[in-house]
Amino acid sequence: MSMKGFVRWTAITVVLLSSLIAASAQGALSGEDGQAAPLDTKIGQMLMVGFRGLTVDETSPVVNGIRHGHIGGVILFDYDVPARSPVRNITSPGQVKTLVARLQRAAKRPLLVAIDQEGGKVSRLKETFGFPPSVSQEYLGDADSPERTRRHAAQTAKTLADLGINVNFAPVVDVNTNPGNPVIGGMGRSFSPDPATVVTHALIVIDALHEEGILSAIKHFPGHGSSRADSHRGFVDVTDSWSSMELIPFRRIVESGRCDMVMTAHIFNERLDPAWPATLSTHTITGLLRRDMGFQGVVVSDDMQMGAIRSCYSLETALSRALDAGCDILIFANNSVYEEDIAARAHRLIRAMVARGTVSPARIDKSFERIMRLKKGLLKQQ
Q1: How far apart are CA 53 and CA 76, in angstroms?
Q2: Which member of 46, 90, 94, 239 lies 3.0 to 4.6 Å from 78 by CB, making a disulfide possible if both were Cys?
Q3: Domains of the chain: which residue ranges?
């Protein structure tokens, strides 16, 4: 073969291989052999779980759930709260990278691998494990230096990308209306009491994550900054303390077109819904977030095992209401309580709701479509 012919043959081969890879990726997202994904798979894509273990293998329950399409995402933690143990999923960069790679290999579709790496007190990747130091969002907001925020956000994004983690549940865009708030202001998680400052720094963080192919989730909709209690522990009512000003960061970030996901809060606000907390509220999610603000991306719940949900509602009621409200991904972090079979139980309950007609197949399809669009974005970064 002549050199010219060899070059032409090589070019054609590259094009064909690229087409095959793209087709394979597309097939993995739409369904086996290009067919529509089965209902069980669609439901599985809506479930994100936490698990125990520094490593996994073929016998691990989480791997089994991922392989069979009943789990679409995982969330990593450094500390095991129910066991009161400092050993959970993270001990070193090399260990985390290997863990994530093994989890990803078990998935037929791209697996969402998430973490809460906000900076400061809410950092799962700590210096003691060999990761770069981080600062709180409050520190960055007080400094009000876009360049400083950009530098810290870029370091976080690079760290996550190197590990294979593709979702950061950050930035927090709650407005610091109550500095004594035990779970937001009191932990330095808010950029500022000024909504405009929150927006400025949150967008810098989102852009830095996107530059490394990391998805973000702004939280906690419709605003957790004014609360006087911690929704991890139980029912939280912000009816008398919440202000519509707390919606400004969410609205502006959605309008920017750079919003991947919105995480809900488990707070109750009678002015928005007289019956249900935000995660379970059709008025709040479908009405306010989707219809009024125009957000068409993925809505992810906060941990469904937190006290504000678990102590007030049965699992079936919580699932039914969250789906009716418009949540696309339901998190069971397994770090308030630990329930090894929670993904399987949630999957069975949702499957039964569809069979009874209390949840329509079209409702599941809508969430599946949103999640698949999100995951296609991950493939483009590879």
Answers
A1: 10
A2: 90
A3: 1-36, 37-381
Q: Counting Cβ atoms within 10 Å, is residue 147 exposed (0-12), middle (13-18) or buried (19+)?
A: exposed
Helix or strand run (H / E) with residue 298? strand 298-300
Q: Which of 57, 73, 61, 28 is nearest to 344 (CA)?
A: 61
Q: CA-CA distance, 326 to 313, in Å (whole number)?
A: 18
How far apart are the C-alpha atoms of 42 and 46, rounded to whole Å? 7
Q: pLDDT band for 84, please (50, 70, 90 cuts).
A: very high
Lowest mean per-residue pLDDT among 30-34, 37-41, 217-221, 375-379: 30-34
Q: Is the pLDDT of residue 127 over 70?
A: yes
Catalytic residue among 116, 302, 324, 328: 302
**What six digits make up the tokens of 116?**
């809460």
DSSP H helical ranges for 145-290: 146-163, 195-211, 248-256, 282
Residue 30: pLDDT above 90? no
- Domain boundaries 37-381, CATH class: alpha beta
Active site residue 152: no
> How far from 233 is each of 267, 274, 305, 309, 353, CA to CA, in Å?
12, 21, 10, 9, 28
Number of H helices, E strands in the chain: 13, 10
DSSP β-ladder status, 215-221 and 261-264: parallel
153: tokens are 């956000």
Please, what is the end-to-end C-alpha distance for the chain in angstroms?
34
User: Residue 4 half-sphere exposure, CB side, CA atoms within 13 Å?
Assistant: 0
pLDDT digits (tens, 9 = 90+) for 155-175: 999 999 999 999 999 999 999
Which residue in 232, 260, 266, 347 is the catalytic one?
Answer: 232
Tell me how crowded residue 244 is: count the other CB atoms within 10 A of its CB: 11
pLDDT reading at 209 higher than 80: yes
